[in-house]
Amino acid sequence: MSVFMDLNLSFSEDRSQLQSLVEMAAHLGFSTVAINYVFEPTAKKKQEIPVPKPINELMDQLPIVQGRSRPIRVLNRLTVVMSDSSHFRPNAAEYRRFDLLAVHPTTEKLFHSACMLYDVDIICVSVTEKLPFFFKRAPVNGAGERGVVFELCYSAAIRDSTLRRYTIANALTLMESCRGKNVIVSSAAEKALELRGPYDATNLYPAAEGLLFGLSDADAKEAVSSTCRSVLLHAETRKTASGIIYTMKSCSQQEETPESEPCRYSQEPVNVPQSSTVDVLTV
Q1: What are the coiled-coil residue ranges (predicted)?
Q2: Alpha-carbon dihedral sign for residues 259, 261, 267, 271
């Protein structure tokens, strides 16, 4: 059974509204959600990076995930809206307070830097306006090689028909470059009514997977499950600088045949050693 995630629930000072968001996500079957704090620095005045609030201060008890016997997992995420290279501070200690780190570049130069240089987990794709640049395949592939994913949000498309056109157009432009890989689909919901279930998120409109968003059935499912899990593993690697754990199959080597003895074919059954699973820690 797949574990579904929504890594973008908009933070609200209204505690009851935020609690209803998390409860709705658990009811729809999401096992993990991330509360998103947006930081948009400006040149006019100095702004402080927001401080995430502990989950126990936001809600008294975490709701149980629909179809599972465990409570929902709630993470904290910071999204930095960048209109200048100075807006992102790679060594800022404030970033370590968050479980996930995302950037929203607004120019082509910043988008290229986010893909190739910045140590982040998620690159946000604008859905509220027409993109001023095109996605080039080189930086998009570079981001994929570094484990950075791109995020598409659908809640804006629910609010307004104009934003819906921007969402679809920008999504198609991205899919032409990344071919549906390294993409997550999130809600960016501000209200509980803007949330959709894991399978509905990529089927908001007729033939959304094949024609509009450019996602196949398999890619659409990965966009709300396995790719999100890869984001969490990448975030742990970024914070600890010690790598992630993955599994690989290794078979014991068979006895080597002497060079002087030619190989012979035999019709007798041969016992093949079973594969064993080994945990490897990569740096």
Answers
A1: none
A2: negative
User: What is the residue whose two structure tokens read 């404030």?
Assistant: 94
Q: Both tokens of residue 218?
A: 């398999």
pLDDT at residue 273, as a whole number:
42
Residues 6+ apart with CB under 8 A from 113: 85, 105
How far apart are the C-alpha atoms of 110 and 280, rounded to whole Å?
A: 35
Kindly report the pTM of this predicted structure: 0.78
Residue 161: is it exposed, middle or buried by C-beta count within 10 angstroms (0-12/13-18/19+)?
exposed
Count of Cβ atoms closer than 10 Å to residue 133 Cβ? 14
Residues 205-240 pLDDT 10s: 433 333 446 666 777 788 888 899 999 999 988 877
pLDDT in tens, 90-140: 888 889 899 999 999 988 899 999 999 999 999 998 888 888 788 888 899
> In this structure, what are the phi and psi dihedrals at residue 201, rounded to the nearest 5 degrees?
-60, -30
Return the pLDDT at 245. 53
Are 185 and 212 in contact by the 8 Å Cβ rule? The answer is: no
Domain boundaries, the chain: 5-239
Q: What CATH number is given for 5-239 in this structure?
A: 3.20.20.140
For residue 132, is it left (φ>0), alpha (ψ between -120 and 50) or beta? alpha
Rounded to 10°, the helix 137-145/161-178 angle is 80
* Percent residues over pLDDT 90 in the chain: 30
